[in-house]
Structures are given as C-alpha cells and as structure tokens.
Amino acid sequence: MPRILSTRLSLRPAALAIASLVSGLASLPLQAQNAEDLTTRLTPVGGERAANKDGSIPAWQPEKQDLPGWSWGKPRLESWKHKADKPLYSIDASNVDQYASRLSPGQIALIKQTKGYRMDVYPTRRSCNVPDFVAENTRKNLGVAKLAANGWALQDAVVPSVLFPMPANGTEAMWNMAMRYRGVATEFKNSATLVSPRKGSTDWISYRYDQTIFLPWAAKGARKLSDTGTNRSHTTFGYVSPPALAGQAGVISDFIDQAGTEAHYYFPGQRRVRRLPSYAYDAPQLGFENQYAMDEVQVFQGALDRFDWKLAGKKELLVPYNAFGAFDFAGNMMEIAQNDFINPKNRRYELHRVWVIEATVKAGVRHLAPKRTFYLDEDSWNAVLAEDHDGQGKLWKVREGYLIPVFELGSCDVVAFSQYNLTDGRYLFDFHAAGTGTDVRWFPEPVGPKMKSNFYTAENLRAVSER
C-alpha cells in the first residue's frame, strides 16, 4: 500500500508537467503570431505601421533621424533631417472650434482661456524607433512580462524593452510609459525650473540645478528585470542658484514593486541629511508655491497604486512632437519662456495616434487630482499630453511633453515639459535645455559614479555634499 501511494504521488508531478506543456504549446501559436505582428502589422513597440485613412499620418518607416556629423553639444534641430519643415497652419482662439476633433479638452480650454496662445501645426514625422536590442527584447516579453498579484506593481520582464506592446489594460500601458527605453541615464547641467509670475506680479520662480536620472536596468543587452533589483530609477540633484538654495541637494529612488519613494535631502546650513517621508504622489515640491507636485514630473512619474487605469482606446490628436525648440540651449530663456506660455516658435505640433488612458482615484484613497487623462504616443509610449481635474471635477491642469528623437540613443524621449494651471493662470517649464547654455545629455551606457546604485544613499549624499 505505501508503495502504491508513493507511485501515485510520483505520477502527479509528471501529469502536471504534461498539462503545463500542453497549455504552453497551445499558447505558442498566439505568441508567434504576436511576435510576427511586431515585424509586419505593428511597429517594433506596438504602434500601427499603416498610415491613417486620409494619409495625414504617414506609414511608419524605420529611418535615421540625424544628419551626418552630429555629436553631443551641437544644436539638435540643425542636425535633424526635417529641419526645413514649415507650419501647415496655426490654431488659436479664432479657429479652435474648427479643429476641436483633433484637440484634447485641455488643449481647447488652454487656447480659449489664454490670450495670444497659438499652436503651429507641422507635417507629421513619425521619427520614433528603438535600437535592435530593444525591439528583440520586446518580442521576448510576449507572455513573459507580468504585473504583480496586486494588479499595479511590476513583477518581471525582459529589459530594456516595451513590456506590453499589445497592452490589455491601462496599467500595462502606463508601465510601458514608465519603462520606455531612454538610455541608462539622463544628465541636466545648469538646467532651470521656471514658474511664471502670479497674476499682477512680474516675479518668476527660477531655480537652476544639476541633475542626473539613472535607470539601473536599462544598459544595452538583455536581462531579467528581477535580476537588476527593485529600483525603477534613481535621481540626484543639487541646486546651483538662487543663493538661498545653492548647495541644497537630494537623492530620490523609486521602485517597481512598492509605492512611494525613498528620498533624502541635504541642508547645507545644518550640514545634515534628512529623510523626506512623504515626497511622492501629490506632495508639493519644495519652493514652488504649490504649482508643482511630485508625480507631475515629466508629465507623470510615480507609483500606480492610487488610481484605476482604464485603456480608453486610441485617438488622432495634435500633440507636441519633434519639439526641438525646448532644447534650444543657445537661445534666450526668457524669450522662449514668455509670461503666459512657451513661445509658439519653440513648440511644434503634429497629428499622431495616441493611446488614451483614463485614471480615476481608487475608493478610500486621496489625491488632489482624482481624475486624470494621459495621452501616450503609439510609436514610443512617451506621455505627450495629460489633463488633471480637481476635486470638484473641473479641468485644472494641462501638461505637454516635448518629445524629440534622441540621436545618441536611436529612440525618442520626453524630458522637457510644461504644465498650465488653468485655475491660477500660471505655468511651469522644467527639464528643458532652452536658454541654459548646455544641452541635455542621454547615456546609452553607464559612465562615472552617478550611474551606480550605491551612489544614491543618505550616507553618500552627506559625503559628496560636505566636500
């Protein structure tokens, strides 16, 4: 009898293995078809290769975007293959209703409410691609990338890649945005956060800073995300001016599997590092008169746990694209950042297909913007537009992400962005290079101590700040 029982038990794992194998084989044709789609019907990241019905959005073609001879430090627009493009038409308060079907509610409100605001619309250039290793990793992710059991955290994936090129829900789409390929690090030197004056005042908020954003999972090649640790990103920053802030510095880390951030801040007057316990979500960033929340950085940055994310389909919208004017580092900053809006000459709009993601705050959870809408570019998963509603359901903030092809990476990214507060009549402009004298720099491979995770600790922040 014991031998028979033992035999039955030994057969059970074999039966389970066979069942698992049969199930796996049954899914192989679908995965194979999906992988084929990414080389035929869809772009390598899941966008539609075909043109739209009237051809105003052309078919996608993998094309090199920079002209020969470009290197970092040279103006990006001057080296772009379509630099000679001219506007097709402009949209302002006089004709906005004519183009309403191709504008978001936030854009319409911004145009109607802001005197002199104008959008110059250019030919559509589908300039976004990814390197071959990212495309290959994206194909490997089919059936491999997974969300955690809580429904919002990320469990595992092959990286760097697009995790869910055919997303089943809004959470997967937002992870595509958060984990898009943007190199291993981005560096900002002498950059400037600008907030326009209060109504009736002429006093800008203007903070200059140096900052590096490091993505520990994003070096060239292929690896399991679970082998790289639990950090999605690390950030280090230090203020250069005004004098009252010079020397203040911080490090912030966020995660793929837990909410919130780990943030430490150095105060030179006290020669102390303090942990900031709630520096996430809608917590106001220090020194910006409640105009700038933590999760508004670069259109959206932060954990996904406080919202339900609905994938509401696709739309054809006029969105910021190939917006090199935000990276005109040799320009005049205050000619670019005008009193009520970014100079129209430094903004460029094109017609593109975007994924629409509707975010609604979960029951029992609070957020200053309980309803939000995000618009993600189908060719890169960058957030190019977002809208926030306040607690009364009123349209409150409109954000634009100034997407450009990043020549040194072979992909596109949004770092520079603006946010218009429709209630206060103010706007902010951050992570740009406009008028700073130095371009933003993207790194395909780690270089130096800031591109190692052990740099981003309270102990190291104290050590490097006190030198």
From TrEMBL:
Keyword Secreted: no
Keywords on record: Signal
Signal peptide (from-to): 1-32
Alphabetical list of InterPro entries matching this protein: DUF1329 (IPR010752)
Gene3D superfamilies: Lipoprotein localisation LolA/LolB/LppX (2.50.20.10)
Record-linked CDD domains: LolA_like (cd16329)
Highest taxon of the lineage: Bacteria
Record has Iron-sulfur as a keyword: no
Protein name: DUF1329 domain-containing protein
